[in-house]
Amino acid sequence: MTLEVNLVCCLSGTSDNKPVCIPHSQPQPQNLQAPAYPAHAPAYPGSHPGIPQCSYNNAVVDAMYCRPHEMVFLCKEAKLSLSGDDFTAYDTAGKKWYQMDSSALSVTGRRVLYDEHAKGVISMKRKLMSAHKTWTIHRGSKAEDSQLLCQVKLNKVPGSAISVSVFLAGNTSSHFSTPVPDYAITGDTKMKSFFVCKGQQPAAEIARKLAAESARLRYLGKDQYAVKVLPNFDHVFILGLVVAVDELYFD
What we know:
two-stranded antiparallel ribbon; LOR; LOR_sf; Tubby-like_C
């Protein structure tokens, strides 16, 4: 499966039918709006030391991939890839941000996400001999155990529900001997939409449909979807999670 991705900013509104990522007693975020991309900023993230970096402790790959405003990647699936979840990420001007390549010959299905300078920023692979279906995400291009960033584990739940737990490297948290994940991913396989939360804080939304003022974005089609990353979250990390969930449920 090949994914073609475009980046836009300043998507207004949220879906009315979201699963609840935060307790009902707390107000849910409404009318999320991102400021326009700073005029002084270059197209590539992290290439200008003056750009505000991650305000909170949400950087996983690198703080340069955290932005103070919302980011939306538009993704179009293609049917011609023989190597798995390849995709290319562009901005609205057609400038390439990232290219993910994978190998059909790899037993673990290893994938590498390259930046515009052909540097591998993250790699990922299927974990073999695991009680639960699991993918691992690593810093760099070699998927080395020493560069492990997280494990993405499928939770066994009935029906069409999506339930995935993400454990960052070094996580030793537990509650009554049950491991506590750093991120939780929930959604619905029939709608092919899901949400990423850090604890009770929403981090990203992935959906076929997203409310938008532009008619071009109002319905993305059956082979397209959007990845909306909330401010101050690591968008490269989120892209890795999207591919992992796609592998766990849809391939």
